Amino acid sequence: MQSDSVIQRETLLLWIGQSSSFRKRCIMKRNIFASLLAVAVLSLSTVNSFAAEAGVLGLKPSANQGAQSSNDTTNKDVSGIVYDTGKYQYPAQQLIAENRQFDKYDWRLFQRFDNQELMYNEWAAVMNFNVTEYSQNVYHDNADGTTTRFFDFRESSLKYFEVEMIGSSGKKIYSSDNKLRFRRNDEVNTYIPISLNIGVYTKPENCFPFGTEIIVPGSHDHNWNINPLGLYQEKFWFNVLNGSLTPEESALYDANYGKAVDPIKLYYPNRAIYVSGWCLSDIAQKMKLINSCFKDENPENCSAYVYSVHKMLQSMSSIKKLN
Asked: At CB < 8 A and 24+ separation, what contacts does 195-199 make?
């Protein structure tokens, strides 16, 4: 009999393969619809309904990276601070060193003073996450049975895997096989922890917004009620790729974001790579929700808290379970 981890692994790989197959079919439709379509955008009504339903508001920038001080009052103990750009590399580094309270989900506090590049590993760490590179095509099988994946920067691959696509809704999006995978630190679910994916691009103009994909491992509560491996995404973004939009959603999609949204360069050695700032805020919002389900980091309670994440996502009308 297969172990739960093997079953979860095979389920996840099957879903990834099906998703990749659909993307290939979408690309073949690109030329047919290209003359009819506006550029891909974010549905503000959907995002706002998600924020309201989840009990959170959209994240706001909290540090003016072009200046030496901040007057933003949304972060505790940060208002009016003067940053020492000679001693520290990015705002949060100074705030942590001085033991100040601040919004750890605000990724702009982790942009470097010198070049605005995002220190994404450091940002993930303060939220109790870690970051790995992901591509379907470049990987190493480890002796312990796990797989380590890497970005795929081969030019022959980029011609296909970083490309404009047409979803079933008729909307243009930009797809990338290269992703950052934010994984919650977890001593129990070591093979498939809670993970959230965000697309990575080699050109800033490709940084179109797209809703976060969330992977939640199988778990049980303290009464042994079980929830299997779950793959989740906001219904709006699922429908952009795989379904259809209402006239109102379509109009908003076409009207507001006909270009890359807030391209942010990552702090990454020897390569210029980018993500959408909109996507960073989206993933931060969801990590905040996920962390709210964890009352402590006791491994004995981990499965029950992961179970709570499943129940929270399944209770939200704006979220679709993909598997």
From this structure: 196/283, 196/286, 196/287, 197/134, 198/275, 198/276, 198/279, 198/280, 198/283, 199/174, 199/175, 199/275, 199/276, 199/279
What is the pTM (predicted TM-score) of this model? 0.78
Token pair in block for residue 261: 């949204």
**Cα atoms found within 13 Å of the Cα of residue 207, Cβ hemisphere only:** 22
Q: What is the pLDDT of residue 8?
A: 53
Q: Which long-range contacts (CB under 8 A, 24 or more apart) does 13-21 make?
A: 15/231, 15/322, 15/323, 16/136, 20/136, 20/177
- How many residues comprise the chain? 323
DSSP-H helix ranges across the chain: 4-28, 30-33, 44-54, 91-97, 120-126, 155-161, 235-242, 247-256, 277-292, 299-314
Question: What's residue 199's pLDDT?
Answer: 94
CA distance 154 to 58: 36
CA distance 49 to 71: 29
